[in-house]
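Here is the promised in-class demo. Please do not try to memorize the tokens; focus on the logic of going from shape to residues.
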């Protein structure tokens, strides 16, 4: 059995959205806050596995985003800036450490990276091309004409397709994306995924994406969980579905280079380190969560 939530769905952060427009409160909160510096999807992590948080006086210049408060009322901000040097911490990405962080740190980093990525892509108004500025504690970009632009999240589905068979002989269908050519990714297999299209439900997207990518029809869809994935700004909706492994797999070569059925025994050997013939998704991903859930019989 797996933990109750995917790794990046955990958070002990109270967002306090009603305070984002109160400039006086934000200014006072900044003075007593803890500050997380983010550079793209990276931050500094201490030797004890905690995020490095700075005093406001030590924070670099950059756009500020109010992330929220903890249960003790301590406010947290993120600053989007080059990471400062610190001998007691190392830079790490959300992909690297997201699964190992505490609930509070996981919520801080996923929110900060999500906002930083959105702001980096929306420096100009989509209406007229005019420059926009950060307002509302980092949760809005405003244009000179008063138009407001809010962060957007793109819904995407990800599905662990399996044969419905219990025990070690049960199989799941994993694919290797054609774009995974970087070192360490050449033999990686993962769940099938894709974006929800306009006018489409999440369930319909699951059926469509699996059929498009591997030519397999699925049934018995089950929603499992979701988590944000800010690459660049998605909400991953996790599902399981059942398919017949005797039906031929026909991959769409533009997206999927290969797809294969793997038994629980084979997947378990990779997870436990006894087999390195293939790679599996990183622990911070919901794909890894779905696979481990299936290994435990949750599907």
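The designed amino acids, position by position:
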């Amino acid at each position: 059995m797996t933990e109750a939530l995917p790794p990046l769905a955990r958070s002990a952060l109270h967002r306090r959205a009603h305070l984002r427009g109160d400039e006086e409160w934000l200014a006072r909160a900044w003075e007593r806050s803890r500050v997380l510096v983010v550079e793209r999807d990276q931050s500094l992590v201490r030797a004890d596995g905690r995020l490095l948080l700075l005093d406001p006086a030590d924070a670099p210049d950059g756009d500020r985003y109010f992330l929220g408060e903890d249960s003790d009322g301590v406010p947290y901000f993120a600053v989007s800036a080059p990471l400062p040097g610190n001998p007691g911490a190392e830079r790490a990405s959300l992909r690297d450490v997201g699964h190992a962080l505490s609930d509070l740190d996981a919520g801080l980093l996923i929110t900060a990276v999500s906002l930083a990525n959105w702001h980096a892509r929306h420096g100009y108004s989509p209406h007229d091309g005019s420059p926009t500025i950060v307002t509302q504690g980092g949760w809005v970009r405003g244009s000179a004409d008063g138009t407001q632009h809010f962060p957007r999240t793109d819904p995407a589905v990800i599905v662990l397709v399996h044969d419905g068979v219990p025990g070690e002989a049960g199989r799941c269908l994993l694919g290797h994306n054609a774009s995974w050519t970087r070192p360490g990714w050449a033999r990686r297999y993962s769940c099938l995924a894709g974006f929800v299209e306009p006018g489409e439900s999440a369930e319909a997207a699951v059926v469509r994406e699996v059929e498009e990518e591997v030519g397999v029809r699925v049934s018995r869809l089950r929603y499992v969980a979701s988590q944000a994935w800010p690459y660049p700004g998605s909400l991953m909706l996790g599902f399981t579905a059942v398919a017949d492994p005797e039906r031929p797999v026909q991959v769409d070569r533009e997206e999927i280079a290969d797809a294969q059925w793997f038994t629980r025994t084979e997947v378990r050997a990779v997870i436990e380190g006894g087999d390195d013939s293939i790679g599996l998704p990183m622990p911070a991903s919901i794909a890894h969560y779905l696979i481990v859930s299936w290994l435990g019989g949750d599907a």
